[in-house]
Amino acid sequence: MIRYRLTHRTTYTYQTPAIRARHFLHLLPRVRPGQVLAAATLAIEPAPSSRWDEVDYFGNHITSVELDLPHDEFIATLEADIDVTPPQPIAHAGITWEAVAAAAASAAGIAEFRLPTKLTGTDDAVLAYAQSHFSPGADMMEATTAMMRDLYARFRYRPGSTTTTTTGPAALARREGVCQDYSHAMLASLRALKLPARYISGYLRSQIVGGETAYSGAEQTHAWVSVWLGWRHGWVDFDPTNDLIVSNEHVTLAWGRDFTDVSPTCGIILGGRRHTLKVSVVLAPAEP
């Protein structure tokens, strides 16, 4: 088990004062098998006139805040201690992908992750790509791992080349993007075969090797994919951006069908004109 200290600071600076605002925040990490939230505070500046802390449909923490006085900045700062225990490694699922698809079709809480969304639809190219990795009778774990590794090899990590509305099929065709695009491409491919997979929003451990960040997507919010391998193994996480079967280097924030379900921040602002956004994230082992 490793305890992480997480600091995530989001700052919106407005060109002119925002008169009124309502924000919806997915910024409190959820509890899941292998992850325990030991302590967490989410501070909002300026102090909101109203705040609601709730749980959404998928079981994620969501914080809604309303500000009814003029303000030049909006700042949300998360500080948390999270305990992460790595799962047992899996080399083979011992079940074919066709059997997983059949079992998931009527499984409560799982079947919905088989369905395409606006960002994870399919087309002939996506289906052909999926079939190239999931041959008839292939082991579910082996085929999924092969797809993840191929996406890592064929994509170029290129910030600014896509937007939050870029679809999985478009990203697969472009072969470039950021973690959201790698994840949407993998989700679209898996769902083309009716395989259940979730979009995971979270954080990746900051590691410096030779003066550079070792992982793509560290020092910011990150995204990866969780795939259901059947009743025996359940959900297993894959990070196609870094060619990783997730162990203890990731912290889960929220999950859903795609990015739109788990956007860290969204909302409505009256006034403010243009704004700038600055996000800083540090995830590192806590001091003993």
Evaluate the radius of gyration. Answer: 19 Å
Q: Note the gap between the termini.
A: 13 Å
What profile does the largest beta sheet have? 7 strands, antiparallel
Summed up, the domain count is 2
Strand content: 35-45%
The low-confidence runs, each spanning 5 or more residues with pLDDT under 50, are 208-212
Going by CATH, the architecture of the largest domain would be Roll
How much helix, percentage-wise, in residues?
Answer: 10-25%
The number of helical elements comes to: 6
Kindly describe this structure:
By secondary structure, the chain is α+β, with helices and mostly antiparallel strands. The protein has two domains: about 1-85 and about 265-285, Immunoglobulin-like (Sandwich); about 95-245, C8orf32 fold, CATH 3.10.620. About 20% of the residues lie in helices and about 40% in strands. It has six helices and 16 strands. It has helices at about 95-105, 125-135, 140-155, 170-175, 180-190, 260; strands spanning about 1-25, 35-45, 50-55, 60-65, 70-85, 155, 175, 195-205, 210, 210-215, 220-230, 235-240, 245, 250-255, 265-270, 275-285. The strands form four sheets. Strands 1, 2, 3, 4, 5, 15 and 16 form a seven-stranded antiparallel beta sheet that branches. A hairpin with a 2-residue loop joins β9 (about 210) and β10. α3 packs across α5 (about 180-190) and α4 (about 170-175) packs across α5 (about 180-190). The longest helix has 15 residues, at about 140-155. Residues about 210 have low confidence and may be disordered.
